[in-house]
Design brief:
The structure holds 2 protein chains of 2 kinds.
Chain A: E1 2-3, E2 15-16, E3 31-36, E4 39-40, E5 45-53, E6 58-63, E7 68-77, E8 79-87, E9 94-102, E10 105-106, E11 110-114, E12 119-121, E13 135-140, E14 147-153, E15 158-164, E16 174-179, E17 185-189, E18 199-204, E19 209-217, E20 227-233, E21 240-242, E22 245-247, E23 252-258, E24 261-267, E25 274-279, E26 290-296, E27 300-302, E28 314-315, E29 321-325, E30 333-339, E31 344-350, E32 360-365, E33 371-374, E34 383-388, E35 393-401, E36 411-418, E37 422-427, E38 431-435, E39 439-449, E40 455-460, E41 467-469, E42 472-473, E43 479-485, E44 495-505, E45 511-519, E46 523-524, E47 530-531, E48 542-551, E49 555-564, E50 571-575, E51 578-584, E52 598-607, E53 610-619, E54 624-633, E55 643-649, H1 651-657, E56 672-677
Chain B: H1 8-15, E1 25-31, E2 35-38, E3 44-45, E4 47-52, E5 57-59, E6 65-68, E7 74-77, E8 80-83, E9 87-95, E10 98-107, H2 117-127, H3 154-167, H4 179-182, H5 201-211, E11 224-230, E12 233-237, E13 242-244, E14 246-251, E15 256-258, E16 264-267, E17 273-275, E18 280-283, E19 287-295, E20 298-307, H6 323-334, H7 345-357, H8 363-371, H9 377-387, H10 389-402, H11 407-410, H12 412-427, H13 432-440, E21 444-445, H14 454-457, H15 461-473, H16 492-502, E22 505-507, E23 517-520, E24 537-538, E25 542-543, H17 553-561, H18 569-582, H19 602-614, H20 619-628, E26 655-656, H21 659-670, H22 696-700, H23 720-728, H24 730-736, H25 742-748, H26 753-765, H27 771-783, H28 787-799, H29 802-805, E27 806-807
Parallel strand pairs in B: 2-10, 12-20
Antiparallel strand pairs in B: 1-4, 3-8, 4-5, 6-9, 7-8, 9-10, 11-14, 13-18, 14-15, 16-19, 17-18, 19-20, 21-23, 22-23, 24-25, 26-27
Helix pairs in contact in B: 2-5, 6-19, 7-9, 9-20, 10-12, 13-17, 15-16, 16-17, 18-19, 18-20, 23-24, 25-26, 26-27, 26-28, 27-28
Classes of the chains: A mainly beta, B alpha+beta.
């Protein structure tokens, strides 16, 4: 039996000593393809059957939620099956993730529900007695054919349908129809807003009799990958738990909102870093709405009405987060933010990624109501508005639904921050395997935002003695292959949750002694004569200038450029053909006259010993460059400079495993599972 | 230029002897009731009508004798009154034994105002065709002289005529020496030949305008705001086959004047009627024609119907099932055309099943229907078919064609969601106004709201404007994007006025799943090509009501579109439904509603449109009305009495099955389904969501690739490739040689050859083979050495038969 850690693996690195088995063959293709049932019941023991490949050496389950797991059996030859008994605490509800841990490695992740509805399968005979509410059906659709179940309803009885497919990582894009005893379609629903492509609704039966609920794929596809869990109950549907974020470690009171109904729910202090699930009131016979809330360690506010016009705007400070509610069609929420000249404001609004309906329209206005900037509609996941203050001023933000909708489901969360250079990291695998004392390699990629410096990677969760190679993503580069050599203390058969964290020096080091200084290339401008002090080409196209730089020693040197610029003319710097900085010459001096030229530090560049070619290039004309200096960085004395961090995410491999799921659960997204084998 | 021609046919018609029962003219009327002439350039056209004892009206303008009481006051030529001297007088008009008097007043001859640049000079150039698309109105002009097309840009024209080429085109000191007059009169070489004569009214106007010093119009000078044409609608029964038209222009200052001599005329069908430069129409065959009358940017049309007694015509009083028949038969009776007889039950079953579901009925369904003796069996069948899923899928496909539903355009999942939405709309019989409103006002994620794919297919403002006008207003407005519509009254102003409704529609980029968001920006105006922001405009009824400058303008458009006083919305859709069932629209082409393209049966179209509105835009109700009518159920075989009729629905239009229908029919008759790529087994060609899933067979038979939003993209004709595909293509061959096809199953079940042949005929033609067909078939099978090969041959022959490939 394995005991799940008391803390979320995404939050704290944990090494699981998962029994005596050994990983003796690497790599192994351990896959988890099918789960039965599709849910485990809180407060009870659920016998969970896992089918897949290479499961015959299964030992236990890894779960993203607290649970006791006992292996019942494991068998198979290639196509394997393992059965476990899973015991959940009584109040454990919501979505969760599991993996099968075997001697040959860890399986892919699968999502399931934690809830108390009785599970049925979809392979019952057609003439079987109609089912009665509440219940849940686990099934998968066949290509071109609807999956049907028959349920007995009384006239006026509520039928609440909550179909989970996309939210559980299924390939099914579901369409649900309810057909009354007369064969008439009562409702046919495809994508319900806020449910990531899944379906949820509630209807009242007009007639007593056997109703049919059918499930199909909108593309008429089918197969094992097109699985679903269809929850059918009588509870009053709820759409959102508000506010959308609560602060970790502090009890909170949530409002559960639905069409024409609200309920309150108190939640205790929770650990940060993931999603917490709360249940609505239990309906007749059982079953309840499942709603999620995000937990982190920031203080956040709640929008307060009335704020329908700019004069009643809610104050919003940089660094703050706020949950808002567009509680009726056409509702507008205004916020006011005080900025200083030059500050770069970034406002990030979220809806669908938090499981709520709607899509935001955000517009930043000046005090007079004039539009400063409208947020572009680029991604469903979030709406981002960037603005750089031209002067000290108070600006006003309008938030409304893009389609001017509103209602109990139309909540949003808004983050207000001052933008700095930063980056995101991604890992190419969500699970790794290595032999004890051995090493493994994994690709780590960086997505940079205004930050071009080097990113140094570290690994958490494997102790201090872990050894890394390739841990530096050089300045201007976007990927590295990180080689991790496991510390001696990790026993074969153990399972570790590790996190890869990157850090970058935001400020460039102070300039030390000059090593070399070069004049800019003279350029014959033709009709205007020869100019001594800048690179320019009236014809446009790609312009460049190359300089031979010979250095006695290899190492990191600062490159400084002296130039004049009335407007930004950002260029690229290459060393021996490699991009080392893609945003040089981004500053202005107020004029194109070289009398205004100043030195600008363009950051550290790693030079080889001897001769190399430094190349500046740009499409179109350059800022007016007069000189180039190569200098040593001065040693830091007091201030170490600001450091920025990012945790590597495993979104890409998880999404692949989860049927292209649009929003990968946050609690899974920052952790890589490592299984350790024998030498 | 209009032609002064009279065809031989006309002469023959006119010289036909009057029959003994020719009704006599009992009364004369003349239009106008009084003549007012002001200034020496004004003309007034008279139209003299004779009212006959049978209620019919004939035009006597050119036959009437007109005498002037005070000679020297006015002159009269071919019914046109010209001023000669100030004063009052009376005209005495006599024709067909009837006499009528008309008061006349002439005044201010000495105060003739200068010729208006727009209303006189440009009207004259338009009249002579100088600014037509083939002459100086082409984009590059002709011979270095470019005018705006049909005078839609007077500013440009003024610059060209007065200033360009150092003003050499006009000679204000000696107007007759102006190039503008010498060229078209061929006094100097003119590539376009002689387009003007000294006695033309246009000559006088052009010369006077030059003599006046080539004045431009003042800013507030009156503009023509509408024109009136008399008569608007008239039946002309042979031998009276000509009609003089009269055109009056109304101006922005409230004035009006006769512009018959300056208007431009064209016939919608020159094989039926011709019209000369003076507005005199002459019918050359029996039928209905629209005469388009254009004065500057104003267009009007008059509808003339030419009738002729048919020897031996006897109306057979066909039973009238509903109002559709009442209107159709009334028109046929009027035109003396006898409708074809009713279809047999088997033929009806095949036709209606194909039209409603795209499929053939099964053998079981055919046997049951042929055995049904209930009098309402046809109505029951129609109701059942319309309520079925096959109907929804088949008719959704037709919309999918128009909405350019392709994976390339809408993404893989987007196509399926939109297709499902369309199928549900047909299945649930979504009221048409709601259907259109859902599409036009759609926004949001295209996955969550598939109707928003309307704006994913229509990728920009122009596309949305033209697609909407085409589908829901039946207007081909794209011409008006660059210049005023040459054959209709639509102007650039109209085009950009509609475009202003769509200008704020924005489309995001598709995400990784192919989902895309459509939304409406809160601001933004569209600019007219010649400057200034376009104002949202609603054709025919004035401007839109926009309560909030940030509101979604499309809501106002949708509100207007579905309003019951919109003259186009309901008519366009019932015409489309009619066309889908009857093979031809009451107006044809179905997306080309214009004054010069009149309906074949206006009362029928009006009634159907009214019924559509009364039923709250219930498409299934209209389909049911048409399908239940005797008109729909007429045989496609023409009789001697109606062979010549191609537009009045005296007999059904036989047409080849659509590509999807042919393939599904082959699969049904052979009982070997087609597998379309990775789509689920059992998917039919008529259910395919996109053309990307279609095999080559469907493309050969004309399935559209959905590149355009036009019905015309579907090819309905026959090609050599189609014949070769059917005769020796692998698809047909595969079906007839398949080990478990229809006849092999029957052979395996121990059925005899007669049963097999009967089953095949019922499957393919919804009838049993006649005795000759049965004899030939049995002899062929009996005489062949290989029974299965013989049945293969018979099945091949059936599939390649006209009866199979056509919907009769």
């Amino acid at each position: 039996m394995a005991v799940h850690p008391r803390f979320r693996p995404a939050l704290v690195a944990v090494v699981l000593l998962a029994g005596p088995g050994l990983v003796d063959r690497l790599p192994a293709a351990v896959t988890l393809q099918k789960l039965s049932p599709g849910a485990v019941s809180p407060g009870r023991v659920t016998r969970l059957t896992c089918r897949g490949t290479e499961l015959e050496t299964a030992r236990t389950l890894w779960t993203s939620f607290p649970a006791e797991v006992r292996k019942v059996s494991a068998k198979g030859d290639g196509a394997g099956q393992a059965t476990f008994e899973v015991t959940l605490p009584a109040e454990s509800i919501g979505r969760g993730a599991i993996r099968v841990v075997t001697d040959r490695g860890v399986s892919n992740v699968r999502l399931l529900l934690r809830e108390s509805l009785t599970s049925h399968t979809d392979d019952r005979p057609a003439d079987e007695k109609p089912l009665t509410l509440p219940l849940a059906i686990d099934g998968s659709v066949v290509a071109g054919e609807p999956d049907r179940c028959r349920i007995q309803l009384k006239a006026g009885e509520r039928l609440t349908v909550d179909l989970w497919a996309r939210r559980l990582g299924s390939s099914l894009d579901p369409v649900v129809r309810v057909i009354d005893p007369g064969g008439r379609t009562v409702i046919a629903e495809d994508d319900t807003p806020g449910l990531a492509g899944d379906v949820g609704f509630s209807v009242l039966a007009a007639d007593e009799g056997v109703h049919t609920v059918s499930v199909t794929d909108v593309r008429r596809r089918g197969g094992d990958a097109y699985r679903y869990r269809l929850r059918l109950a009588r509870y009053v549907p709820l759409t959102v738990a508000y506010p959308l974020f609560v602060r970790s470690g502090q009890p909170a009171r949530l409002r559960l909102l639905g069409p024409g109904t609200t309920a309150d729910r108190a939640v205790p202090g929770l650990p940060a870093g993931g999603t917490v699930w709360v249940g609505g009131p239990v309906g007749p016979g059982g079953g309840r709405a499942l709603l999620s809330v995000q937990v982190d360690d920031r203080e956040r506010g709640v929008e307060s009405e009335p704020n329908d016009d700019g004069s009643k705007a809610n104050p919003l400070a940089a660094g703050a987060g706020v949950s808002g509610l567009l509680d009726r069609p056409g509702d507008r929420d205004w916020f006011r933010i005080t900025l200083k000249k030059g500050q770069r404001l970034q406002l990030v609004g979220r809806t669908a990624s938090l499981g709520v309906a709607g899509r935001l329209y955000m517009r930043l206005c000046n005090a007079e109501g004039g539009t400063l900037v409208v947020a572009p509609q680029q991604a469903a996941t979030r709406c981002v508005l960037d603005y750089t203050a031209a002067a000290d001023a108070e600006v006003r933000l309008l938030v409304e639904d893009l389609q001017r909708r509103g209602g109990p489901g139309f909540a949003y969360h808004l983050d207000c921050r001052l933008r700095t250079a930063d980056f995101d990291l991604g890992v190419a695998a969500d699970r790794l395997q290595a032999v004890a004392g051995g090493s493994l390699s994994v690709k780590v990629t960086a997505a940079r935002r205004d930050f071009q410096g080097a990113i140094r990677l570290s690994v958490e969760g494997l102790g201090k003695n872990v050894m890394l190679a390739g841990e530096l993503i050089p300045a201007g580069k976007n990927e590295t292959t990180l080689k991790i050599t496991l510390p001696a203390g990790l026993e074969p058969g153990s399972l570790a949750s590790l996190r890869i964290v990157g850090s970058g020096q935001l400020d460039t080091p102070p300039v030390g002694p000059t090593v070399k200084e070069l004049s800019s290339i003279k350029y014959d401008r033709g009709d205007l004569g020869i100019f001594d002090d800048f690179i320019s080409d009236k014809k446009g196209g790609l312009n460049f200038a190359e300089y031979d730089v010979e250095l006695a020693n290899a190492g990191e040197y600062l490159v400084l450029l002296r130039y004049a610029a009335a407007a930004q003319r950002v260029a690229v710097m290459k060393l021996d053909g490699r991009v080392v900085n893609s945003s040089i010459m981004s500053k202005t001096t107020g004029s194109w006259s070289t009398k205004t030229a100043r030195w600008f530090n363009e950051g550290l560049v790693k030079f080889p010993k001897g001769k190399s070619v430094l190349r500046l290039e740009k499409v179109g004309v350059f800022s007016h460059l007069t000189a180039i200096r190569i200098a040593l960085p001065a040693p830091r004395k007091k201030q170490p400079g600001r450091v920025i961090h990012a945790r590597a995410r495993v979104t890409v491999p998880l999404r692949k495993d989860l049927g292209g799921m649009p929003f990968v659960p946050r609690e899974l997204d920052g952790t890589v599972l490592l299984s350790v084998g024998k030498k | 230029m209009q032609r002064h021609v009279r065809t031989l046919t006309t002469s023959l018609l006119l010289t036909m002897p009057l029959c003994a029962a020719e009704p006599v003219v009992s009364r004369l009327t003349v239009e106008p009731a009084a003549v007012e002439l002001s200034g020496r350039r004004q003309r007034v056209q008279l139209v003299v009508s004779g009212h006959r004892s049978d209620g019919s009206v004939i035009d006597l303008t050119h036959q009437a004798r007109v005498t002037v009481e005070h000679r020297g006051t006015v002159g009269v030529q071919r019914g046109r009154v010209l001023p000669l001297a100030n004063g009052t007088t009376r005209l005495t008009i006599s024709a067909s034994g009837q006499v009528l008097q008309l008061p006349v007043r002439v005044q201010r001859l000495e105060q003739t105002p200068p010729v208006s640049f727009r209303n006189g000079l440009l009207a004259s150039l338009s009249k002579q065709g100088c600014n037509s698309g083939g002459c100086h109105g082409s984009p590059s002009g002709k011979g270095g002289f470019r005018l705006s097309l049909r005078a839609f840009d007077p500013t440009l024209d003024a610059q060209t005529l007065i200033r360009e080429q150092f003003a050499r085109r006009v000679n204000v000191f000696d107007p007759d020496k102006s190039l503008l007059l010498r060229k078209p009169t061929l006094q100097v070489a003119h590539g376009g030949g002689q387009q003007l004569r000294r006695h033309d009214p246009a000559y006088e106007l052009i010369r006077d305008w030059i003599a006046d010093g080539c004045p431009r119009d003042a800013e507030d000078s009156p503009r023509c705001v509408r024109t009136e044409v008399f008569p608007r609608d008239r039946f002309l029964k042979s031998p009276a086959v000509s009609q003089q038209l009269k055109v009056v222009a109304h101006f922005s200052d409230g004035s009006s004047r006769d512009v018959t001599h300056l208007a431009v005329y064209s016939s919608s069908n020159e094989t039926l009627a011709e019209v000369d430069v003076a507005g005199w129409v002459t019918g050359t065959a029996v039928g209905q024609v629209g005469i388009l009358v254009r004065f500057l940017d104003q267009m009007q049309a008059t509808r003339l119907t030419f009738l002729k007694d048919r020897p031996g015509f006897v109306w057979n009083e066909p039973p009238v099932i509903n109002e559709v028949d009442r209107h159709t038969f009334a028109r046929l009776k009027e035109m003396q055309i006898v409708p074809s007889p009713l279809l047999t039950d088997g033929q009806f079953l095949r036709r209606v099943t194909l039209d409603v579901t795209g499929l053939l009925p099964t053998v079981k369904e055919t046997r049951a229907f042929l055995a049904d003796r209930r009098p309402d069996r046809r109505a029951r069948l129609i109701a059942g078919l319309l309520a079925g899923e096959d109907h929804a899928r088949f008719w959704a496909g037709r919309w999918a064609d128009l909405f350019r539903m392709t994976r390339k355009q809408l993404g893989s999942t987007g196509v399926d969601k939109f297709h499902r939405w369309l199928v549900a709309a047909v299945r649930d019989n979504m009221p048409y106004d709601r259907f259109v409103r859902s599409l036009l006002t759609a926004q949001g994620d295209t996955f969550a709201n598939p109707a928003a794919n309307y704006y994913r297919a229509a990728t920009d403002v122009e596309d949305a404007t033209e697609t909407t006008a085409r589908h829901f207003l039946g207007i081909r407005i794209q011409c008006a994007k660059c210049h005023n519509h040459p054959y209709e009254r639509w102007t650039q102003e109209n085009y950009y006025g509609i475009a202003a409704f769509f200008n704020r529609v924005r489309r995001g980029k598709p995400d990784s799943a192919g989902n895309l968001v459509v939304w409406v920006a809160r601001s933004g105006e569209i600019s007219r090509p010649r400057g200034g922001n376009a104002v949202p405009w609603l054709p025919l009824t004035g401007n839109a009501k926009l309560p909030d400058p940030e509101s979604d303008r499309r809501l106002a458009l949708a509100d207007w579109l579905v309003r019951k006083d919109n003259p186009l919305f309901a008519r366009v859709e019932v015409n489309r439904l009619w066309s889908m069932l009857c093979g031809r629209g009451i107006i044809e082409p179905i997306d080309d509603f214009r004054a010069s393209n009149p309906p074949a049966n206006p009362p029928l179209l009006d009634w159907l449109a009214g019924e559509f509105q009364r039923s709250d835009f219930d498409r299934r109700h209209i389909l049911s009305l048409i399908l239940n009518s005797r008109t729909y159920q007429l045989d496609s075989l023409a009789t001697d009495q109606n062979r010549h009729d191609q537009q009045l629905f005296s007999h059904a239009v036989a047409h080849r099955l659509s590509a999807e229908q042919v393939l599904d029919a082959i699969c049904q008759v052979s009982q070997v389904p087609e597998q379309f790529g990775k789509l689920p087994a059992g998917t039919r060609a008529t259910q395919l969501a996109t053309p990307e899933d279609a095999p080559a067979f469907l493309r050969i038979f004309g399935k559209p690739s959905r590149e355009t939003s036009c019905d015309c993209e579907r090819q309905t004709g026959s090609t050599l490739s189609q014949h070769l595909t059917l005769v020796n293509g692998s698809l047909v061959s595969g079906k007839i040689t398949h080990g478990k096809n229809r006849f092999r199953r029957l052979i395996s079940a121990g059925r005899g050859d007669r049963e097999i042949l009967e089953d095949l005929y019922l499957a393919a033609f919804c009838r049993l083979p006649n005795s000759e067909e049965l004899r030939v078939g049995l002899e062929y099978v009996g005489g062949a050495g290989n029974r299965e090969k013989a049945h293969e041959d018979i099945q091949w022959a059936v599939i390649n038969s006209r009866e199979f490939l056509f919907r009769n």
